[in-house]
Design goal:
440 residues, alpha+beta, BirA Bifunctional Protein, domain 2, Rossmann fold, 2 domains, 9-stranded mixed beta sheet, 5-stranded mixed beta sheet, 13 helices
Length: 440
């Protein structure tokens, strides 16, 4: 993509309303534009990141045995009244009536609707387990939206739901999601730590938050250092095997937010193993049994092995896809701008032509651009007639993993500069060496 033809409205000045790093950088780098309090348009560069995150989330859900559906954003109030949550959820739920005076709501979550779908089609234990998910926009009318996409009112979320015959099966589904979340966040370049959590309005008695450490985090966290340093991808995961030992090994080490913090238990950890820091929630999973399927709620039954009706056991599992864009920036940036992990970067390479109009420089840039794209490398080619300083600043601000810098002196000898955004290492290489480094 040529930057001269790309819609990338970067800002030199930081908007006054931006209070945290990710909000400032997302506005300045042209990823989003605020339309109302807590509501944003996603501009081309930001939307590419959003789509890459969603793709990784989707791949890991599929690998764990989930099936993707798509539920509507607007839900009938009757379902929530049936479950008993309509009045309990609070003012965060946006309620309204249509032209026929039917009560509707803009969905903040989908436990009721997915339970209604399940009961319409699943009648026997032989059809269990069922794991369904979707990636959908949601709305929660936060009393004080702030911090950009980190605490917005409208947000993109992956929510999945499990239905099992009994508690043992529900726990197996919970463990699958537990491990799938660890793998998902690792692929996104994040070190996510599972911590026991409150269940809140979702309900149930078993819940884990997944927290990444960041100085600007909303929560105080206390964690055993071994969890911070552990590499989940080094541990083979077969979703059809017993995952309980792996989950137990993670949860056996101390990890808690300030809500669940036990000072005595934390003090018992060797001093060199204690980590007290700030953290950002990037995922939350729940087991809640028959809270929605039971007779006191939506009264869902399937025929059990003995022919008698059984209320299926359920769990739900959320990842804030749009929130993750801000969380990744909070965890990966410097004074100059964003530093994208390669797995989610909107483009892999920024190609900087420092003297547009110079025949040799233009020819070398054109050749690099064509050959990289022909080999599947996504390139943002800065072919604007701007000063070199502007191009350097914008390249650092938007944070693509690699910068290929071509100036007239180097181009005359067939040489370019390759800069890695993370760490800032620079190497002067010839054309073929650069292509080998980026393609190979």
């Amino acid at each position: 993509m040529r930057l001269s033809r790309y819609f990338l409205p970067t800002l030199k000045e930081t908007p006054a309303e931006a209070q945290i790093v990710s909000h400032r950088l997302m506005l300045r780098a042209g990823l989003i534009r605020q339309q109302a309090a807590g509501i944003y348009s996603w501009l081309p560069l930001g939307f590419r990141v959003l789509e890459r995150i969603a793709r990784i989330v989707r791949e890991e859900q599929d690998a764990a045995g989930c099936h993707e559906i798509l539920m509507p954003t607007i839900q009938p109030a009757e379902l929530w009244k049936e479950s008993g949550r309509y009045d309990d959820y609070g003012k965060e739920m946006l309620r309204f009536r249509d032209r026929h005076d039917r009560e509707l709501l803009y969905g903040p979550t989908n436990e009721e609707m997915v339970t209604d779908i399940f009961r319409a089609f699943v009648k026997s234990y032989r059809q269990l387990p069922v794991l369904l998910y979707h990636i959908q926009w949601k709305f929660r009318d936060e009393v004080r939206p702030r911090f950009g996409v980190m605490r917005g009112r409208e947000f993109l979320m992956k929510d999945s739901y499990s239905f099992d015959l009994d508690q043992a099966g529900a726990r197996r589904s919970y463990n699958k999601m537990f491990v799938a979340y660890l793998r998902t966040f690792a692929r996104l370049g994040l070190k996510a730590i599972p911590m026991r959590a409150e269940t809140g309005p979702i309900g149930g008695d078993l819940s884990h938050e997944f927290i990444i450490l960041a100085e600007t985090g909303e929560s105080q966290v206390f964690v055993h250092r071994d969890l911070v340093e552990r590499d989940i991808l080094a541990e083979a995961v077969d979703y059809d095997s017993d995952l309980q030992p792996l989950v137990d090994s993670w949860t056996s080490l101390y990890a808690a937010t300030d809500e669940k913090h036990d000072e005595a238990a934390f003090a018992a950890i060797p001093p060199e193993k204690r980590v007290a820091a700030r953290g950002i929630e990037v995922g939350h999973i729940f087991y809640f049994g028959t809270k929605y399927s039971g007779p006191e709620a939506m009264n869902v039954t399937v025929q059990g092995p003995d022919g008698k009706p059984v209320h299926p056991e359920m769990g739900s599992y959320g990842i804030g896809v749009s929130r993750l864009v801000g969380a990744i920036i909070e965890a990966s940036h410097d004074e100059a701008g964003i530093i994208w992990p390669e797995s989610v970067a909107p483009f892999r390479v920024a190609l900087l032509n420092l003297k547009v109009g110079d025949a040799t420089t233009d020819a070398l840039c054109a050749d690099l651009y064509d050959r990289l794209r022909a080999n599947g490398v996504e390139v943002l080619y800065d072919d604007r007639e701007e000063r070199a300083g502007v191009k350097f600043a914008d390249a650092d601000l938007i944070g693509l993993p690699w910068q290929v810098i071509v100036g007239p002196k180097g181009a005359a000898g067939g040489m370019v500069e390759l800069k890695r955004r993370k760490g800032g290492e620079r190497h002067e290489l010839d054309r073929d060496a650069v292509l080998e480094r980026l393609i190979g």
